[in-house]
Amino acid sequence: xxxxxxxxxxxxxxxxxxxxxxxxxxxxxxxxxxxxxxxxxxxxxxxxxxxxxxxxxxxxxxxxxx
Length: 66
Known about the structure:
single chain, alpha+beta, four-stranded antiparallel sheet, 2 helices, globular
């Protein structure tokens, strides 16, 4: 599995962390290692194939990838 660090803008509190964790958790094929204000660390076997799903999940949670 490949470890990926996502830099995320718009997060400011623990509610933001929970919202992003929930949305990322809906994506099959990724493992969430850590989510904190401003970043998330995940693992996946198919990073290229998950890019759009990850971007959509971040935006659904109300944030943006940097």
